[in-house]
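re: the backbone from monday

yeah here it is again, tokenized this time
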């Protein structure tokens, strides 16, 4: 070959390279643009208009679902709009795991929420950048984050209430807006990520009816309770996306509601972003068990698009191409939604050279960075709510030489994770947190109880031994760098129990998350003879493109083999089971072999059984008798309360609850401990309010820890030892009984939440104790009389009158004129401040006209004349130390919706 020919071939190859890399997946390269949409110097709106205009009808329909495919001829990469970041980037490998949303709300710390939102989006962007480098454009790896959940937690029976910021519109609005701003960033040109407040609107159960339920809220409740947080995140937080709900409002599905999507969202609030449906919500328009609003998929898709639902989580919008051809809708109507969706992708910088997008350079090392880990610990510490501390039994420092740790949540991974969770790396469980913090004490552990009778629970570490005759709790674990148990194990260690979440993650650095296997060997003994149903929870996957199998050998005989193929439905992630029979309580040889192979998702195994209540209780009492103090980890589980679940046991129904008391098996555990006379400390791990009336009357101390995140075990232990002074406050009312509540299906706010409840709660909204004490003084109002439309400033001093440093949550409540409609008072300000012993801090609140307004029966918000008062303290008015002031408003000023 001649030199000239070689040069020509190299030049041709170079030209081909430029053509192929002009717009690589995810981020555009710096090659010279050929078309206006590729020219990053042009306004984004013009570029989007140009790009949408080049698509065919069928390509347009394909882009209107969450799994938008690539269009190679236009250089458009595939993109999936579905990513989760409720309290950490979820389902995409290891990430920083914060407390569940209800726990974050308990911090009453607005700046902290902003930092958490920022952390979630930094890790999402870092994961996205890494995914693009590997040509991954999948669900959970995008930058459109379907959070926060700002529905009002109106009833403690709702299983998804754990995902919210509680029952108060103002607290939810402030925390949600801070989270949105943190997620999206402050760059004027590009979003770091896009927030998606959900579920718009008037949505909070029941889970079993959500696909067909119709809510007809009064105009007062709609504008006073259900919409303020959405307004704040959209108008003040400038969230660029929003998710419409499954339920109907006033007879129309929320995703086809002209009231919600056109009049309010785009009319009143001037929303410029895009709307996504909840998953399958468009199908609910026409399914037999849904709203029966549309006759088929084509008509449902037309209804959704016309009302302003821009993208469909699901596949129904693919019918829009045929709908256009059948004359049901014009192609130009599709273009409206397409322009919104592509403008979002352009504003994320996905069509620009990485050098122009500062977030495109965020390295993968930002994921779980030391700073993020420290923030997670801070959040878990701040989320702790001390409900009772009789005779200062806490802190425990120096008071206990032997600590009995019991209860179903003491050694359970899901109890620190919650739902819609990030995957924690090397998670620390509560019992291990106690042992680490109280190093000079002897810590004894027994599970003691299932969550509820006949409810599966993790087989506890106390029932395993690494080998016959061994005293080491747990199982020998051999990890292989392939899915066939071949060769020498890459890792050998002792696993205390089989309770693992490796969703899109590797169990160890030497293993590929896409293909590995694990063999656990040792012995298993039962707490009593009998039949035991063993269930295996596999990792959540949606969609599922993995193949998993596990085999159990018992007494050296193969008992069962379970295998799922690569194209399984995500519901198959549930619980394969087998029965074991024990003639005695002696150790029996036991082996579990788990194999995982995947293109991207899944991985994880939790081994559970349904154990008899009395033998578990007997085991607990054996360790209690040898202890100086007992710490009982009781409460709920995200396997029992959550989103549309297949759970039907007493007290629970489909993810919701039918009773708010502690389940009977756990209650019996507490009562049995009390009978011994040992000090009893109750730690609650749960996502919703519990009527723990007996514990309030009989336990020595109660700590509410929620589902506390990756640092939860450390935060709990430090709170019990006194290293962390608790200052969290309840974001929901703890009622004494379900009998105190209206019907679960009643969406009227009458006699609900602290603002309207007429009875005496077990613990009120905003309640929480401290190891310190605080006093308020010198409350001053900027005026005693103001004209409607003016602002009011409130100044005061708060002092730490205790002997230890601590945080105080100053809560400001507005008491309006009482007319039989308005709340007795409403939270209108809060600040979390840290004070040393004897330190006094000046605090100030500024109430704007919207905070000084109220809604009438017609839903009209206005500042109205009358006499008002202010209450400022560490809890609701009339509870504890506080200060008050009064003022009058003259005139009236209507405020825009």
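seq for it, each position gets an aa:
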């Amino acid at each position: 070959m001649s030199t000239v020919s070689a040069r020509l071939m190299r030049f041709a190859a170079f030209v081909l390279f430029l053509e192929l890399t002009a717009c690589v997946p995810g981020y555009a390269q710096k090659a010279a643009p050929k078309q206006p949409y590729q020219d990053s110097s042009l306004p984004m709106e013009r570029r989007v208009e140009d790009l949408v205009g080049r698509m065919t009808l069928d390509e347009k329909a394909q882009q209107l679902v969450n799994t938008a495919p690539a269009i190679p001829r236009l250089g458009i990469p595939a993109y999936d709009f579905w990513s989760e970041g409720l309290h950490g980037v979820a389902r995409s490998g290891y990430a920083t795991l914060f407390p569940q949303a209800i726990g974050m709300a308990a911090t009453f710390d607005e700046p902290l929420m902003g930092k958490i939102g920022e952390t979630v989006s930094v890790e999402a962007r870092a994961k996205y950048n890494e995914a693009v480098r590997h040509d991954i454009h999948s669900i959970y790896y995008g930058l459109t984050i379907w959070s926060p959940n700002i529905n009002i937690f109106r009833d403690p029976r709702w299983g998804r209430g754990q995902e919210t910021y509680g029952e108060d519109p103002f607290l939810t609005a402030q925390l949600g807006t801070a989270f949105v701003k943190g997620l999206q960033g402050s760059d004027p040109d590009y979003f770091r990520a896009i927030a998606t407040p959900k579920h718009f609107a008037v949505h909070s159960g029941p889970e079993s009816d959500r696909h067909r339920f119709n809510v007809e809220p009064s105009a007062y409740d709609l504008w006073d309770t259900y919409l303020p947080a959405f307004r704040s995140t959209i108008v003040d937080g400038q969230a660029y996306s929003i998710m419409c709900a499954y339920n109907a409002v006033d007879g129309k599905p929320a995703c086809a509601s002209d009231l919600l999507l056109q009049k309010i969202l785009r009319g009143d609030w001037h929303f410029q972003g895009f709307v996504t449906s909840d998953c399958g919500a468009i199908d609910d328009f026409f399914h037999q068990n849904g709203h029966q609003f549309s006759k088929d998929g084509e008509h449902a898709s037309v209804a959704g698009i016309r009302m302003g639902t821009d993208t469909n989580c699901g596949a129904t919008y693919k019918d829009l191409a045929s709908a256009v051809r059948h004359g049901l809708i014009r192609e130009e109507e599709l273009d409206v939604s397409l322009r919104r969706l592509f403008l979002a992708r352009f504003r994320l910088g996905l069509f620009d050279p990485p050098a122009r997008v500062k977030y495109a350079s965020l390295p993968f090392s930002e994921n779980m960075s030391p700073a993020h880990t420290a923030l997670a610990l801070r959040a878990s510490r701040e989320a702790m709510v001390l409900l009772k501390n009789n005779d200062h039994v806490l802190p425990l420092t120096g008071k206990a030489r032997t600590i009995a740790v019991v209860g179903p949540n003491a050694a359970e991974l899901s109890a620190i994770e919650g739902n819609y969770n990030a995957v924690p790396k090397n998670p620390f469980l509560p019992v291990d947190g106690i042992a680490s913090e109280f190093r000079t004490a002897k810590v004894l552990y027994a599970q003691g109880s299932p969550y509820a009778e006949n409810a599966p629970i993790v087989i506890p570490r106390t029932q395993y031994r690494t080998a016959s005759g061994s005293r080491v709790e747990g199982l020998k674990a051999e990890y292989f760098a392939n899915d066939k148990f071949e060769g020498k194990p890459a890792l050998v260690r002792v696993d205390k129990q089989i309770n693992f979440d490796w969703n899109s993650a590797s169990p160890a650095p030497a293993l590929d998350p896409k293909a590995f296997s694990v063999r656990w060997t040792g012995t298993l003994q039962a707490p009593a003879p009998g039949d035991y149903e063993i269930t295996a929870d596999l990792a959540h996957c949606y969609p599922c493109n993995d193949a998993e199998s596990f085999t159990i050998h018992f007494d050296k005989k193969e008992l069962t083999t379970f295998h799922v193929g690569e194209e399984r439905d995500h519901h198959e992630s549930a619980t394969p089971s087998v029965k074991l029979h024990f003639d005695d309580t002696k150790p029996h040889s036991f082996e579990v072999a788990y194999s995982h192979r995947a293109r991207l998702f899944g991985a994880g195994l939790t081994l559970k059984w349904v154990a008899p209540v009395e033998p578990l209780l007997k085991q607990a009492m054996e360790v209690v008798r040898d202890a100086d103090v007992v710490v009982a980890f009781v409460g709920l589980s995200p396997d029992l309360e959550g989103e549309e679940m297949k759970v039907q046991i007493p007290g629970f129904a489909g993810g919701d609850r039918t009773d708010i008391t502690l389940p009977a098996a756990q209650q019996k555990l507490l009562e049995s401990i009390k009978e011994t006379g040992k000090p009893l400390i109750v730690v609650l791990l749960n996502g919703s309010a519990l009527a723990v009336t007996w514990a309030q009357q009989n336990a020595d101390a109660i700590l509410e820890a929620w589902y506390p995140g990756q640092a939860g075990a450390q935060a709990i232990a430090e709170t019990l030892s006194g290293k962390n002074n608790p200052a969290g406050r309840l974001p929901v009312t703890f009622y004494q009984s379900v009998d105190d509540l209206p019907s679960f299906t009643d969406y009227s706010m009458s006699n609900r939440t602290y603002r309207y409840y007429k009875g005496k709660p077990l613990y009120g909204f905003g309640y929480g104790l401290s190891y310190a004490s605080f006093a308020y003084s010198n409350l001053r109002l900027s005026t005693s009389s103001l004209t409607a439309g003016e602002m009011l400033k409130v100044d005061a001093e708060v002092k730490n009158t205790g002997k230890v440093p601590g945080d105080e949550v100053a809560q400001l409540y507005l008491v309006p004129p009482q007319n039989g409609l308005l709340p007795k008072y409403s939270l209108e300000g809060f600040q979390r401040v840290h004070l040393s012993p004897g330190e006094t801090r000046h605090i100030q609140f500024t109430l704007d006209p919207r905070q000084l307004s109220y809604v009438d029966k017609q839903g009209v918000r206005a500042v109205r004349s009358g006499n008002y008062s202010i209450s400022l303290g560490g809890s609701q008015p009339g509870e504890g130390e506080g200060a008050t002031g009064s003022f009058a408003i003259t005139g009236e000023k209507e405020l825009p919706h």
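The mean pLDDT is 94. The domain at 772-894 is CATH 2.60.40.10 (Immunoglobulin-like).
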